[in-house]
Amino acid sequence: MGELDGQVAVVTGSSRGIGRAIALELGARGCRVVINYHHNEAAAQEVATLVREAGSEAVTQAADICVSEQAQQLIDSAVTNFGGLDILVNNAGITRDGLSMRMSEEDWDAVLDTNLKSAFHCCKAAQRIMLRKRYGRIVNIGSVAGLVGNAGQINYASAKAGLVGLTKSLARELASRSITVNLVAPGYVSTEMTAKLPQELMQKILANIPLQRLAQPEEIAMAVAFLASPGAGYITGQVLTVDGGISM
Ligand code: NAD
């Protein structure tokens, strides 16, 4: 028996990277999972298959969560397929790095829409279900960049800092119904997002991480699974940093 047996989770952007690891971890704990993808259906299907092989249930759902109607459809799919929603993990995100002086408005908007507005859309749709049930766990994936800033990431750091405000405000709005809202702020994680960083920059980053390595996606997933569990019911509005010590 897993600690999340019978519960239902939606994980945005879960066909790869950290989202994939979160979907697998929640599935391994008995949760039924909606695997959201933007473009790569085959990768999402593979994650769903792995969840099923581990003994739980999973479905895939295409949605560009920047679009409110599609975010609504994603949340609706949890109800249609599994009869409810207990856990929402707002994981999907993108980077479009560049110094602010040269950053296009398009790159600003794309990053704010994908990392911040999408979470607003998904939370808005999810809370209707959670409020009725008087139970819910929302976990947002932020970043250390949103806590301490990062040169070349003014759009991304602003979006992730915005997620902290979203997390705390929503936590206050929903607390009376036993719905918790928290944020996990990873440092540098070994995924396709960091694979595109230049080797030279990566060496500098590693020199500043006390644990001297990148995180594995599974290490972020463990923190998310804890905050998504019934046992974390007295924790809300918090930022849990999982960064190898880089921001201390
Ligand atoms: P990734 O690029 O491997 O995965 C991101 C996922 O989000 C992809 O599956 C992508 O398809 C999905 N996505 C993007 N736009 C979407 C949209 N409009 N609708 C639906 N899905 C969409 O990145 P990752 O490293 O796994 O990052 C996951 C989260 O963790 C992001 O929010 C990221 O900002 C955050 N994060 C990552 C790191 C890191 O070092 N990798 C560090 C801190 C925070």
Describe what is shown at a glance.
The chain is α/β, with parallel strands linked by helices and 248 residues long. It has helices spanning 17-28, 41-53, 68-82, 105-133, 145-148, 154-174, 192-195, 199-207, 217-227; strands at residues 8-11, 32-37, 58-62, 87-90, 136-141, 179-186, 239-242. The structure holds nicotinamide-adenine-dinucleotide.
Indicate the topology.
Blueprint: E1 8-11, H1 17-28, E2 32-37, H2 41-53, E3 58-62, H3 68-82, E4 87-90, H4 105-133, E5 136-141, H5 145-148, H6 154-174, E6 179-186, H7 192-195, H8 199-207, H9 217-227, E7 239-242
Parallel strand pairs: 1-2, 1-4, 2-3, 4-5, 5-6, 6-7
Helix pairs in contact: 1-2, 1-9, 3-4, 4-6
The structure holds nicotinamide-adenine-dinucleotide.
The site of nicotinamide-adenine-dinucleotide has 27 residues, from helix 1, helix 4 and helix 7.
Q: If you had to describe this structure to a student in words, what would you say it looks like?
A:
With 248 residues, the protein is an alpha/beta fold. The protein is built from 9 helices and 7 strands. Strands 3-2-1-4-5-6-7 form a 7-stranded parallel β-sheet, sandwiched between helices. Helix 1 links the parallel strand 1 (8-11) and strand 2 (32-37). It is globular, with a radius of gyration of 17 Å. Nicotinamide-adenine-dinucleotide binds at residues 12-13, 15-19, 36, 38, 64-66, 91-94, 114-115, 141, 143, 186, 188-189, 191-194. Nicotinamide-adenine-dinucleotide is lined by residues 12-13, 15-19, 36, 38, 64-66, 91-94, 114-115, 141, 143, 186, 188-189, 191-194.
